[in-house]
Amino acid sequence: MGCAGSRDKADETAKKIRKPKPWKHSEPITRAQLIQMRDEFWDTAPHYGGRKEIWDALRAAAEADITLAQAIVESAGVIVQNPDLTVCYDERGAKYELPKYVLSEPANLIRDN
């Protein structure tokens, strides 16, 4: 049994994640436009560095509810810098930046026609 002030490595790397704070896109967008932006991001994200399996885990976490997302990032060994998942690292130190539009919907989302 360790002392009360000791922490194991998992405690240091596993932050409790949460949904991003409310945000607005520069102009109102439709759900179809939001989906297109997300698809484009996820299609190109691995080209900016890092490992494909970490990008895949981050996508799964971004599309899951908070409890499942927490389990996904922990099992993938993702080090969460910002609790809203906008900045993460893998165990090798590669940085992964996620825009808020892949993590939540904007306040100015408009209905598709």
CATH homologous superfamily assignment: Ub domain-containing protein, DC-UbP/UBTD2, N-terminal domain
| Number of separate strands | 5
Number of domains: 1
User: How confident overall, as mean pLDDT?
Assistant: 88
According to CATH, what is the topology?
Bacteriocin As-48, Chain A
Rg from C-alpha positions? 16 Å
Topology:
Blueprint: H1 9-13, E1 29-30, H2 31-44, H3 52-63, H4 66-76, E2 79-80, E3 87-89, E4 95-97, E5 109-110
Parallel strand pairs: 1-5
Antiparallel strand pairs: 2-3, 3-4
Task: Summarize this entry quickly.
By secondary structure, the chain is α+β, with helices and mostly antiparallel strands.
List keywords for this structure.
single chain; 113 residues; alpha+beta; Bacteriocin As-48, Chain A; 3-stranded antiparallel β-sheet; two-stranded parallel ribbon; 4 helices; 5 strands
Written overview of the protein:
- The chain is an alpha+beta fold and 113 residues long.
- It has one domain: Bacteriocin As-48, Chain A, CATH 1.20.225.20.
- It contains four helices and five strands, in the order αβαααββββ.
- The strands form two sheets. It has a three-stranded antiparallel sheet with strand order 2-3-4, with no helix packed on it.
- The termini are far apart.
